[in-house]
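Hello,

Following up on my earlier ticket. Below are the two sequence lines again, exactly as submitted.
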Amino acid sequence: MKKFGLILLTLTALAACSKGRYEDYDTLGGHTYITGGSVGRSYMMSIADDLMAGVLDEMVLARETQKSGATASSHFKINGNFNAPGSEWSVYSETSLFKGLTIRCAEENFWGISYEGDFPIYGVFYPTTFTMTATLEESGAWKLFLNGAREERGGYHCTFETRAGQNSDSRMVFQNTLGTGVSGWNRIKGDLFLTVYKNKEVVDVSRLSFNGTPSQATYTRGL
Amino acid sequence: MKKVFSLLAGVFLCASIWAQGPHHINVYIGGFNAEYQETRTESYTSDLYSMYEPHYQINSGPTATVEYNFAVLPWLEVGAQANYAHLNTLTWRTVNGIQTDPKQSKEIFSVLPEAKFRIPSPRHFRLYGKAAAGIIINAGAYTGAPVQFAWDLVPIGCEWGGQRVYGTAELCYGNIIRGGRIGIGFRF
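Thanks for your patience. The regenerated structure is below:
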């Protein structure tokens, strides 16, 4: 009987230890728990930051290359004066995330931009296409109109675009260059929309609204 | 957990009454359910699928096993094992943050006819291997077909102690438990 008691005691202790171990997983979940607002906001912020501000950085680099008088570049394939109607510059540097980006000048200070390739949004590469128009204002601010789409795994895809929302203009204004990325383009005004589809059915529409105040944006889901 | 221990204690007490002869009854408590072990390997990627697709966090208690074998030859026993595990799950979508959805629970029962092979070994430390195949019955609100094929393989196990009451431990792999089981046995 002593043996029996000892074995049962051992089994009870074993089970108790095990239960404690899995309560840890209740906390951690075996996943990185991220609050919902944060993860959705970060995804859209990545479109504004990595994609839109990234394209603007390319535009600034192209203008500087033009200003330097260079006719050849290790980064751009140059065809004409960057700000002259009919010119076409494209990114061909292997190290650039924007390899394949094409910038065509439609009229002075107005460009049409297109891209197709694997691009990282929120750090993950998926086939992405987008077109943009970029207008350089006299104040030095850029007005961007964006329309893009992205195919992801598991039947998910999304479209993203700038259009009138909290702000009346369908374009987004980026100004006050302090560096690169949205921290450099720190005065942004306009609305970015994201529509998420699963198997071609809309599952969510969200908006990221910038009001021109540095580092501030309002994220809204379920529109 | 209380249910599991009550069940095991009941079987143990009944078996001890008849404890003589060529029949074997073993009761085990084992590692964690295989379904749980598969699910917890899911990883997070910062894409739409990970954000919008439901994630399941499955918690498993230990698996309880009751086994009966009959010695048809000195080196061969045939019989069956029955297993029970309780799982509960929390479902959430990362884009919604940590969800407050109620936990769903699931009971997993399985019955597997089996063959147990004795390996020549000392009298008080008896080695064996086992192979079992049968069905899993899922009863509960979430994932998994109601009835699934079940298999369990014990490459090595050992019994120690007396001929009538003994301790037993075994390594096992299959879609019931992955890891090991420990228990007590009766011979009658």
